Amino acid sequence: MYIPPFLFIIIGLESDTNHVMEVERCLGIEAARTTIIDQIKKTMGAHGMGIDDRHTMLLADCMTYKVCVCVFSCVCDLHVFCV
User: For residue 79, what pLDDT band results from cuts at 50, 70 and 90?
Assistant: First the structure.
């Protein structure tokens, strides 16, 4: 089947993003939590670090327990973003 070059097809099961706020706005807090878990695993795996899944899930739960995404900065400040 010929697909013109200006026509883009997005396959949802093969799509990936690292924009947690956009995922939370479009798909909900559970999808944002899953995105956080995936990003932590990818980042730590790229540096050769292994983290137990329960710890990763605990961090994602702490970041999403208010039905908002809480972000921790490098200076240990807590920022809460509600969309």
Answer: low
